[in-house]
Each structure stands twice: as C-alpha cells, then as structure tokens.
Fold each of these.
Amino acid sequence: MLLEIEDNETRGKLPIYKVGDRISGPSEEKAVETRRSAPKIAIVIPTLNEHKAVGNVLDGVKNVMDGYEYRMLVVDGHSVDGTDDIAREKGAEVIYQRGKGYGEALKTGFFHARKWLDAGVIVMIDADLSYDPKDIPELLAPILKDEADLVVGNRFAGMQKGAMPFVNRIGNKLLSLFAKVTLRLNIYDTQSGIRAFKSKLLDSMNLVARGMPFAIEMLTEALSSDARIHETPVSYRPRVGKTKLSPIKDGGRILGITLRLMFDTQPLLFFGSIGIVLGMVGLFLHAVTLPTVVYQYLFMIGAIQFFTLGLVIAMIKRLGRSRTRKSWKS
Ligand SMILES: Nc1nc2c(ncn2[C@@H]2O[C@H](COP(=O)(O)OP(=O)(O)OP(=O)(O)O)[C@@H](O)[C@H]2O)c(=O)[nH]1
Ligand SMILES: [Mg+2]
C-alpha cells in the first residue's frame, strides 16, 4: 500500500486521514517517537454511521483489554452521524479511511496499526455490537502463545436468535463451502469479521479487495503464506443500527473474488476443472456422434492444454511463494 497522510496536530497525537488523502506517515522522527511509546495490540474497528453502537463497543473493549498493552483504532468511512466524535470521546484514535468500502477501511487501519502504532498483533471487530468484545481474549490467546498466526471467530457456534437473517445464514454457509472446495480453506465461518492476527503476516499478504470480499481474500492470502489459522467459537447478536451489507450484491462479489483467488492460488485446480469439463464434453461427443466427425478431439486437446497450463502456472507460483513465506516468518 502506498499511503500518505497529513499530520493534524489539533486533533491529538496521531495523524487524521481526511477525505481524498493519499495516506503515508508524518516524518520518520515522529514515527520513531510514536513507536517508542507504542502498544503491542491494536484493536481496529471499521465504522460507517454506527453512532448507536460504537460507544458500547469501545467500552466493552476497554473492559476486556484491561491489563493488555493495547490501542483502539477506529477507521471511519466519513460517517455523518457523529460516530467519529463519539469514538474520540471514548478514547479511541480515529482515522479516516482511504477510498470507500469495508476492505479499504481495514487496509487503512492495518497499515496505520503496523506502521504508526507498531502493533505486533491486530484485532479486528465490527462497531455494530454484533460481536462481543468479551471474546477478544479467546482470539488472542493462541497468538500470544505462538500457537497460531491468525484466529477467526466462528459465529455459527454462538449465534443468537435473529442475529443473522436466514438468507445471510444460508449464503454464508454456501460461501464457506465453496471456499473449502475451491480455495482449500477449511474454515466454517469465512465471512466472520472478528479476527486476531500477527501484524507481520501483512508483509506476505496481497490485499486488494475494497469491500466485503476482503474477508475471504485475507484468509486465502494467509493460507498461501503458510500461516497457522485457528477458528474459535464467538457469540453473535443482532446488530444495532443499519446494515451496510447487501446480501445479493456482496454475495455475488464474494463469489467473483473467490474465483479470482482460485485462479491465483490454486491454478492447477482452476485450469484442471476447465480441462475436466472440456474432456467430458469431448467424451460425450465421441459417444454420440459418428466416428467420421472429428471436432470432439478438439475438446480433448483443449482439455490437455488446460491441464498443462495449470501445471506450469502452479509450478511457477510455487517457486515465487516459497520465497515470500520464508520472509514474513523470519
Ligand atoms: N469505514 C468503513 N466501515 C464500514 C464500511 N462498510 C461497513 N463498515 C463497518 O464494518 C462493519 C461491518 O459492517 P456491517 O454492516 O455490520 O456488515 P455485516 O456484519 O456483514 O452485516 P450485518 O451485521 O448483518 O449488518 C461495521 O462496523 C460497519 O460500520 C465502509 O465502507 N467503511
Ligand atoms: Mg455486522
């Protein structure tokens, strides 16, 4: 991420990102000074018009994080309901996201947490009170014990009645199943928004999704980096305030990104699947047409070519990846 920011002394110790800003840091001296007094855990909270819930979320975080070295970082999407002012009053640092969307907000927050807060661990949680901050220590424990690099909260384990509409529940399950088949992601709740991870992991993740598909991209990138991913049960309650999720539009985008990620991370499976389909069409045509007709062989040749293409891309990607994997772990 190439980011630039404007330092704003009047708003407190840390810089505030404004609409249209490209984000980068203040002077290197200031960054060093900030790092010296920096906490180890950053709680990153994306907000978009969440004035009804954000205060309670931040109070909950403060209660549960007592004893940890932490900072609360609210990444606001230019809310118009005073969410940012409430967050500041509650003691959070508020920055304004670059661009638009949930994914962009988290990227802005992660970058800031890593570079200016020197956070070794980042926790992300929504600002709508659907997740309970009380679950944060459970997410942190495996990371602080160095048993995991990324921990995801599984909402299906502690879902309260009415917390997730039926359509979303089915959609989320199907998306996770699809991700299991296409991306080898063995996670029940791939769309969960409560997670903790080692910030070093960001070095090896190529995060480009702007909106809700960010959730699946982050997991796929972590898996490709050989991160140890754990899942832990969390509670999930009906949200306070208006949803920002559009089940059909966002569901479609998540599906699209899943296919793009499959192409990126599982080329053999991606091209091999196309090869299998072509091969089956070829065999079918072979069975039902006259032996003098030859176009079925074109399908067979296409199938072999797709397989070979998948194999070659997989080998090239494997070489590149083993280098990145080593670098973030060292
Ligand atoms: N900064 C920023 N935050 C966002 C944006 N979109 C959503 N959020 C926040 O991200 C979190 C998740 O959004 P939600 O609307 O709760 O989406 P969801 O959890 O998938 O769906 P529901 O909880 O069922 O409504 C909330 O805290 C939102 O305020 C955005 O574009 N920018
Ligand atoms: Mg929510």
Amino acid sequence: MQSSLSLLVVATATTFALFIQEITADQTYVPNLRRRSPDDDDDAPSLCALLIEPSGYPCTEHNIQTNDGYLLALQRVSSRNSNLRVQPGPPVLLQHGLFMGGDAWFLNSPEQSLGFILADHGFDVWVGNVRGTRWSHGHISLSVKDKDFWDFSWQELAFYDLAKMIQYINLITSSKTFIVGHSQGTIMSLAALTQPDIVEMVEAVALLSPISYLEHITAPLVQRMVGMHLDQMVSAMGIHKLNFRSNLLIDLLDSLCDGHLDCNDLLTSITGVNCCFNNSRVDFYLEYEPHPSSAKNMRHLFQMIRKGTFSQYDYGRFKNLRLYGQTKPPAFELSSIPKSLPLWMSYGGSDALADTIDLQHTLKELQSTPELLYLENYGHLDFIVSAKAKEDIYDHMIGFFRLLGKSGSS
Ligand SMILES: *[C@@H]1O[C@H](CO)[C@@H](O)[C@H](O)[C@H]1NC(C)=O
C-alpha cells in the first residue's frame, strides 16, 4: 500500500514535471502553426499529395468553414479505374477517431485500407478531418496558440465539424451521404444524428468500435489516468492542447506504467490486444499518428467514464445552470435517432475502449436494431489497420451499403 502510494506520488510529480517541459517545448516550437486563413496556405504537403495520390488515386482538397469559424480540410477520393469515375457512386464520409486524422483510412496498402477500397468500389469517398488535427487549417480569427482555439470537445466536433462536412457533401453531390465512423467518429455521429436537420442528409451509418457510454472501459492505462484525475491536473495547469507526438508525453505515458501496471505494450494498455496489427508498419503509422486534440476533449470523455453518462460537457453546477438552464449537463437522447435510419456496427471482443457492456447500453436506447458484426479477437485499432480488415469487416459493410442502394429508397 505504502509503496504503491509513493509510486503514485512519483508518477504524479513526474507528470507535472513533464507537462511543464511540454509547455516550454511547445513555446519554442513555432513553425507551421500560425495558419489564420485559407489563403495563408501552408507549405506543408496536403493529405492528398502525401498519402493518397502516390497510390494512384485522384484526390482533391476541399476547404470548409464551420459555423464557429474553424477551417477544415475534406479530401475527395475516387477510383483508380477511370470507368468508375465517369459516374460517381454514392458519397461516403469517413470520420476518424481521437488523436487520429483523415490519414487513418489510408495507412495500409490500397488492398487493405478502407478509403482506397471504397474508392475502388466506385464510392465517392470524402475524408473528414476535425479541428486541431494536422490537416485542419486553423480558424478565421483564432491562432492555434490561443487557448480559445482548444476550447472544444467531441460535442463541438459533432455539432459543428461533422454537421458542416455533411452539409457540404450534400451541397456538392446533391445526394444523401453514407457515414463511416471509427471510435470518436462514432460518438460524434451518434450525437449529430440526434439532430433532425442532420439526419435528413444521411443515407445510412456504419460504426466501427462504436462508443457513446464509456462506463466500462477496461484499458488499464486509461483507468489509471482517470483514477489519478489527469484531466483535472492538466486543466489546473492551464494546458489546453494535447500533443502526444512529443517524446515528452510518450515519456509521461511510460512513467504511468511503473510498478504493478503492465505497460510493456503501451498501445495494448490503451486500446486492448489488437489481433492483426502489423508491427513492421509502426514507424510508418507514427509518421501520421497521433494528431493533437484538446485537453477539454479528454476531460469530457473522462467525465463520462466516471459518471457513466452520455451527456454534454459538465462545467459544474453553476455554469451548467447558466449555460444549459439546469445543474446537470443535458443527456444525448439516442432514442431520438430515427428508426428509419439504417445502422450497421462492428465491434470487437478485445476492444478495451468500446466495451461490449457499454455497447449493449447504446443498443437498448436506440429505437432501431442495427446490423451487428462481432469480431471476437479484434481490438480498437484493428478496425482501422488490421491486415485482414477487408475480409473481416469492410466487405460486409460494403455489402450493407450496396443492399440499401438497391432498395432505391432515395
Ligand atoms: C506488414 O508491413 C510490411 C511493411 O510495410 C509489409 O511489407 C507487409 O506486407 C505487411 N504485412 C501484411 C500481412 O500486410
């Protein structure tokens, strides 16, 4: 007891020390962060140029502006086969997870990666990138160095970013869109789909590692961070941006892994055992992941883990009363997602973040009965980078989309 307590104290002290270094490091790290307008274009290559076009896929960059002033990039990808390009198929929007960006859908070979596979099946593929990621372009008036830039959680990603992406695709294609979300992309989708004006632009939704309730997360490292109130520490220290790319934050994670907690495999202690992770590609993945997000986003998720709620951000009783007109933050009503919206979900028995008990909770509250695909040995990352994801998941998902297209409901 004594020794685990002192370990915790050491870990906490180390955490503080590392965060202080992180702030200092961040202040000296000025290049490429000052993007204020879409014209003020950065020299950094785009996602299209860096990852998608080199594999032979036509790709165009689209810039959109959210209603609260964030500038986001969307990529539109089509098939390598020019016959399929003549008449573009139905649009599908890919929405990545936390600490990831639109690159997540293109990290394996064209035969293995969902973004490429959908394009090869003739879908009109749109790639979402939320605020704060490497591919987003800042804000009309805020700099990424302003704390207000990072004043968001996944609920803003749902109501502003995702809503604007769907609206834009709807405008350009004059068609309802399919949505595929992974992890944070699923909680964003579920929250957004409680809004009737968004649902009416959506054809169907496929969720990989679906999350809404987070009460039963089993990832030991996440439990530990929640237990030691890392979110509150970070916020008390005035840290607004989380950037896990720095070696310092990697060191921090290592420092949380002391003693009884087995973090030999850091990724596993966060995401669960991933059955089909290709270890020889890790260096390549790390060229793209992880992307930054806000400390407030982590805090919102930690609130949900502690309370078992699927609710808006909790500001504390008084500010809640002022903002929401009630002392508790309003809950998202999954039951207001229309029964007529076709839903498809795939979840894994080894996923330490999207727990099956939490998924049962989600399912109980939905009016509709989604089609489910359970993969016993899949962990959280397998849904994106499993070397066998095509056979295991994507072919089934595409079958589901195709069947809907045939019934000709729209
Ligand atoms: C794993 O990655 C390596 C390096 O990129 C690649 O050569 C190999 O084909 C991959 N294995 C599988 C099963 O995809």
Amino acid sequence: MNCARARSLFDAEMDRELSGAGRNRLLRHLDGCRTCAGEMRRLRRAMETLRKSSLVPPAADACARLHEDMRKESPALPEVLDLDGLADWLRLPARELEPFLDQIPAFEIAGRLRFRRSSVEKWIEERERAYAEGRRTRRMRLEAV
Ligand SMILES: [Zn+2]
C-alpha cells in the first residue's frame, strides 16, 4: 500500500468503518511509514480535541473535513525521503520506482536508502533537459523526412 492509498483510508479508519484485510494493510503501512503514522496521530488528536470541546457529538463528516483542512495546511515535504515518500512525491507506485534506483541520487544510512529532495530535484531537471532534447531531435528527424 502506498501513502496516497493509506491516507485515503484514514477517515474510514477513524470512523471504525475498516475491517479485515483492508484494515490490516493500513496498519502495516502505518507501522512502516513514519510520515503517515504521524499524520494519523495528528488526525486522531484533532478529532479527540473536537470531541472533548463540543457539547454535541461532531457531525458525521467532521473527520473528513478535519483531514481535508490538515492536508491543506500540512507541513512542507521533509527534505529527506524514504522510498515510499519518494514514490509518493513522484506519483508512482514504489515498485515502479525500483528499476530506477541505481540512477536516482540516494544515500545509505543504517542500512536504509534515503533520498535528499534537492538532489532528486536536480536529477529531475537533468531528465527534463534530456527529454526536451530528445523531443527536439525527434522533431528534427521528422522534419528531415
Ligand atoms: Zn505512508
């Protein structure tokens, strides 16, 4: 499960609507992903505060709305990403990123692979240039025909 999918399940989990395999997959993701676990914790705390501070029970969609607000004001992306975070940032499933792991700038710490966002941004810029160059070459070739 990737971060985007995990986060789309937060509201259902908060409303205790998840069960069985789906919930297990979410909990496994939360075990391995500190970013999502932190967001889930913040959401739980916010809901708790809301419950305690209001005399009437929160509206049915209160959790979804809270989560939406949190997403809007969520802190900037961390400068160092793990593989899941990188995949999330690049809008790709992590397994599709794996073949590129020997190209993407990374460093290893405590036996784990980490990615500095600014380095990956430079790498993306190189790819953009290469892609634009390739497009130009293809166009020239077409025009020459
Ligand atoms: Zn995650």
